[in-house]
Structure formats: C-alpha cells, structure tokens
Amino acid sequence: METFLEEVNKKIHGVPLQACYHCRKCTAGCPMTKHMEYNPNKVIKMIQNGQRDKVLNSSTIWMCLSCETCITRCPNQVDIARMMDVLRQMAIETGVGAREKNVLKFHEAFLAGMKRGGRINEPFMMVEYKLKSGDLFSDAMIGLDMFMKGKLSLLSPRTKDMKSVKNIFEKTKNR
Which partner for 128 in 33, 98, 109, 114 could form a disulfide, CB atoms 3.0-4.6 Å apart? Predict the structure, then answer.
C-alpha cells in the first residue's frame, strides 16, 4: 500500500518532499505563516510522518496563496505551493473540503473563471463567488471604490488559445 508521502510525491511531479531538510526558509518567507495552523515546514514533516488526516483537515492548506515565495527561498527547490495545491485537491476528493468559511467556494469560482476564459475576470469571479457564498453585499463598497479608481475593469482579456486551457483541465481532471 502506498504511503501518504509517496502519494503526495507522485502527484507533485517534481522534487520529492524527502529533499526538504527543514531549514525553515520557506516558513521564514511565507507571508501567510501567521495565519496558518501549521507552518509550511511543519506540513512537510507531517506528510513525511504519514499524518494524512491531520494535514487534509487543517486550515493551512487553504491559507496558502501560491505566491511561490517558498520555492524561491528553498535551497532544494521543493515546490511547496504545488504541494499545497495537491493537498487541497486531495481534501476535496476525499470529501474533507475546507475548514475555512467559504474558501472552497472561492476556489471553485476561481477555477470556473479560468475554465471560462483562461484568465481571471475579477467581476465575473466576484459575482460567482458572492452567489455561491450568499454574502452578497458585505464588501460591495470596496468593489465599487476599486472600479471607480480604475483598479477593477468590467472586461478582462480572454486567452487566445482556449484549446490549451481546455486540455490542461482535461489532463488534470483526475489528479
């Protein structure tokens, strides 16, 4: 039977997590560490120790911004952002979902926007998220202010090669 570490490594398709020697540079550079239940270094250690349920049920995997500061700082180029993405997908597939309120709905709205146009159209993504979450007006004034200051446009460019976007979603459907 495959261990949790082997399963995650197989899905990452990159530098195996055993390459991490826990220097904590990823944690020191992560802008979200103070909001995480476990720091990135601890998550790797938990995976290495086979703590599947603890990892997949943690809020940490949903707090990662995928900013890739961690991989930039890692001397062994362990792709923690990709690892977190894999862990989120595993949590969804096992029915665990997200502990953080509405984060899964945001994740779904983001992916739907990517499928639709290959890029994020913030207004459409925001509307989809608001409808899914039921939180329609809590921050409407912020969105209006952003639009009035030119920080938010109604239309975003679409990717010209939508066939490639479709292929990416098809190839990763079962991962």
Answer: 109
